[in-house]
Amino acid sequence: MGLFTSTEFKDLEELFYDQLEDVYDAEQRLTKALPQMADKASDPELKKAFQDHLKETEGQIRRLEQVFKVFGRDAKGKTCEAMKGLVKEGEEVITAKGDAHVLDAALICAAQRVEHYEIAAYGCLRNLAQRLGQSQAAELLQQTLDEEGDADKLLSNLAESFINREAARA
C-alpha cells in the first residue's frame, strides 16, 4: 500500500485485510531471503540466528493463516512493496564482498530493518484486530509481535556484544 494510493477503505475490516495480505506476502518473501542471509553470515551465532528465524517465520506464516481463518477468509497475499525493497537491500549485502566481520555487521543492519518493519506491521494488525473485537486473532498476532521483538533484541545483542567490535577492527 503506497502512501498516496487510490485504494478505498470503506471500513476498518477492509483495512485489516489489506494489511494482513501485505504482511502475509512479506513473510513469504522473507522465507526466501533468510537462507541466503544465513549462508552469507560468517559468524556461527549469526548464522544460527538466521536459521532459527527462518523456522520461526514459517510458524508465523501458519499463524497468519489461522488469523485469516478466524475471519472466515482464505489466506492470500498482496505484493508487499516495503518487503520487496528491504529484501533487495539485503541482497546487496548478500552479494557484497569485503571483510567477513563487516559483512556480518551489514547483515544485521539489513535484518533489523526487516524486523522493525514487521514489528510495526504486527503492532498495527494486533490493534486493528482488537478494535474489530477479534481477541483470538489479536492474541495470534501478539505472539508474532513478541517473536519479532525478540529477534530484534537478539540481533542487537549480537551486534553490540562482539560483531560490531570485530567489524571495527577490520
Description:
- The chain is mainly α and 170 residues long.
- It has one domain: Ferritin, core subunit, four-helix bundle (Ferritin).
- The protein contains five helices and no strands.
- The radius of gyration is 17 Å and the shape is elongated.
- It starts with 11 loop residues before the first helix and ends with a helix.
Oligomer: single chain
CATH class: Mainly Alpha
The figure for the number of domains is 1
Percent range for β-strand residues: under 5%
Radius of gyration: 17 Å
Features:
mainly alpha, Ferritin, 81% helix
Question: How is the topology of this model organized?
Answer:
Blueprint: H1 12-40, H2 44-70, H3 81-94, H4 100-131, H5 135-169
Helix pairs in contact: 1-2, 1-3, 1-4, 2-5, 3-4, 4-5
Summarize the structure.
The protein has 5 helices and no strands. The chain has helices at residues 12-40, 44-70, 81-94, 100-131, 135-169.
